[in-house]
Design a protein that fits this description.
CBS-domain, 4-stranded mixed sheet, 17% strand, 7 strands, 47% helix, single chain, alpha/beta
């Protein structure tokens, strides 16, 4: 029986930045780590960073999606989050999405201007704070964590032990286990 701890990446080995870091700086850190992974021949390329407070506690995660969502600031509200989740599953036409963009008056400026504003934001203003369903105990069975990932649509889960974050369980690591199992099944 595998447990989450068997597959997680320890928090101290994961890419992290202080919450006062700018998005530009966080992107630079992520690009540097990705380059190092490539140089070392590692297949996995990190797509998010863990955000830490001044006491080195995890307060959030900044993903590529969070940065892109920040380009549309009117969606960074409770109503906006609701609109995003409904449109993601509703299979709306491109025409309807364009009319929503006009209705929300989302972009009163160019793409380049929005990018400049976003990259100068602090990560704490752009990150997402983990929801309850984005945590899993390190002692939990892997099957439970997989179910949690699938049902919550999570690409990673923060792993906790004794009320502190000790690691991260990534979808890519779970997939790698599936790949290993498929090779064993061939034998």
């Amino acid at each position: 029986m595998q447990i989450v701890k068997d597959l997680m990446v320890p928090i101290e080995k994961y890419v992290s930045v202080p919450e006062s870091t700018t998005v530009r700086e966080a992107i630079g850190v992520l690009e540097k780590v990705r380059h190092n992974y490539q140089t070392e021949g590692k297949e996995y390329k990190p797509r998010q960073v863990i955000v830490l407070d001044s006491e080195h506690r995890v307060v959030g995660m900044l993903s590529q999606r969070d940065v892109v969502v920040a380009l549309e600031p009117k969606y960074r509200s409770e109503q906006g989050d609701e609109a995003i989740s409904h449109t993601a599953f509703a299979n709306f036409s491109p025409e309807l999405l364009k009319s929503m963009m006009k209705w929300y008056a989302l972009w009163g400026e160019s793409f380049d201007e929005r990018c400049r504003k976003v990259v100068n934001m602090q990560v704490k203003d752009c990150m997402h704070a983990p929801r309850r369903d984005e945590y899993v105990k390190e002692s939990e069975r892997l099957e439970v964590a997989v179910h949690q990932m699938v049902m919550g649509g999570n690409r990673s889960l923060l792993v906790n032990a004794d009320d502190r974050i000790v690691g991260i369980l990534r979808l890519s690591d779970v997939f790698q286990q599936v790949a290993l199992a498929s090779k064993k099944a061939d034998k």
